[in-house]
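Shipment paperwork, digital attachment
Item: protein structure file
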Amino acid sequence: MERKTALFEAHTAAGGKIVDFFGWQLPMHYGSQLSEHHAVRRSVGMFDVSHMTVVDIAGTDAAAWLGVVLANNVQKIGAGQALYSLILNHQAGILDDCIVYARADKSYRLVFNAATFEPVSAWLQQQALSMSVQLTWRDDVSMLAVQGPEAMAVLASVCPQYAGALASLKPFHFIEDDAHFIATTGYTGEAGVEIILSHASAVTLWQALLAAGVQPCGLGARDTLRLEAGFNLSGQDMDASTNPWMANVGWTIAWQPESRQFIGKEALLSLKQTEQVPLVGLIMTEKGVLRGDMSVYLMQGDQQVGQGSITSGGFSPTLGHAIAFARLPKVAGARAEVRIRNRALPVTITQPVFVRRGQAVHQPTT
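Attachment content:
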């Protein structure tokens, strides 16, 4: 089914190149993906992320239920705070990642990806059957992301009623009133916020930000920004066939208190972390592009001693060369290469984080 956000007409009016994204009609770019990427790294850009799934969670068992369905522990946060977590199946496979927000009335808000809407929604509903919890899918709201080093200042100028609160809002915190839910979260590696609001208010705010000179950005820039920042893409870098250690997100597992029995815990305890094949970063300064599903070869001299594959890859506008995530076995002393048009091209293995706050982060591991 073809779905459009409340901002669809604004996207087309701005020259957005519309593509299908898991059933949603969304802009890939507005003429220059490169310019959009640089706007977020250097000043400010905005994204329509209304395709994300928003679920409100209430009921006497709300916190206890989240303690079962999330690998991280919501008891670690208080009202006005957010928590990144994974939703695992019983085999410790990653169904999706998400952000959960703790609200003042002891209810919660959960946001997860559009790509997993149907299976994850069904999974959550199934887990809720035996507990006193009410799940409300918020199809009546939109979601905007305003990201970049100038994001907070520009938003404060457009919404002066929040200027004071925004100035003191720490990362992974939020404020809300009847009109706006504003959280200091994002998917770009830059400062900024994600805002949940009514469809009509989203159109009004988008136009106000546009008038203030904020660059509208599409899916293309969103992907290159998150890749540079080292953020996994659900369904590509991690899925139900990968466990948290394979996706480098084992840090999201809350093992304490030991009495908490979350879905996937038993399977995780039976896995040996040291035997998992985690994601690494790749840097290629030769001409060419690293793309998902490309093979990566580990070599010692002229001998191939291992092989893996790229999960996400592309050109880094900030760094000016190709970068990627890859899942590779560990082979001491091996060098890595890819093969493009019958040419063997060297790649450097690094930690899978390339850019932070607009600056290059290079941490070679081999």
